[in-house]
Amino acid sequence: MINRKQLVVGCSLLAVSQVGLAASYQENFNGYLAGIEFSKPDLHKVLAEKLPIAWTSSVRVHAVSLDEPVIGIDEGIVSSPEHPLVGTDGKGTSGTPGVCEKNCALRFRYPGSESLDEDSWSELRFKLTDDLLGEKKGLRDIWVQYDQYIPESYHYRSVDPGNTSIFEGGHKDFVLFADQYSGYNPTLIFGSLIRTKDLGVSELEGTSYLNYTFSTREDDPETQRTRKYCCEGMSEEDRMIIPSVDKGYWQRRTYHVTMPTSASSNDGVVEFWIQHRVGEPDSFVEKLVDYTEGDFYGDEQNYLNGGYILGWTNNGYNEDVVYIVDNFVVSDSKAGIDLDAITESDRVFPPNPPILNPPQ
User: Domain 20-342 belongs to what architecture?
Assistant: First the structure.
């Protein structure tokens, strides 16, 4: 059972959940100004400075109501899936002109272009505040979970038909860091690529495959390196988006990171799950990352306290693509998330892609 502690800040009613001794925060995106850049309005700024999560900057991100069609989603009205820990309360902004009051979510728009030289970009950055962290600088153990809608217009184009490498592209999907992005700061990046051998194969084309890396500071006088890269992952089997499965449906994405206990312990953890087709009878869960020997100790920055959702894509899009994000949860314990979304399924749908040109 979840005991809710209500915090009243000015006219805003904020809900912070505590499950046992674990602190967690659930965001339903109700109560924000709609129709303008998400992190810029003065009303949002006042709210964000007093929320357990501050939304610090955004690019082409807007709060929208899912009670009506979302611009850029051509398949009609999209209903957000239920989350067992995310309520429907607002933030004390009822009646304020321009505020999305209920059944709200975030719209991320990636502009499309016929030019293969054009990249594209949409992202929302966040920072954990003292309301969640207390006197800590960040979380050594962090769980993040949110829902992402994959539109029918989703595609992953190739911009280099002559590429002979296994993979092409580069699309950021989620980032966690300590204090600031990259530089000397511990930074974990999840992204996706496409396989070049999928191109031209209708049942495979557009499938995106996971790649991730964790980088921390390194001062090596011999190599002059300032960054150490740990637990880089790239696989032809770990699929982020399966077009035949995910287009027109929701994914529930769950990330878990535990920072190492010392510089020599090598006990850092990185885990990542995707629940495909959330809320549907044929929903299933895949675990894409299960890494338990991380040596990404952050020294005086051995924590995580910020990040961003989605991000830059190197390949761009042929036409505008709009993703919807809802039910954002951050917690320092597994008890603060939807556990069904990390319970792996006995089956995988569809089956693994066929082997192309099998040997005779």
Answer: Sandwich (2.60)
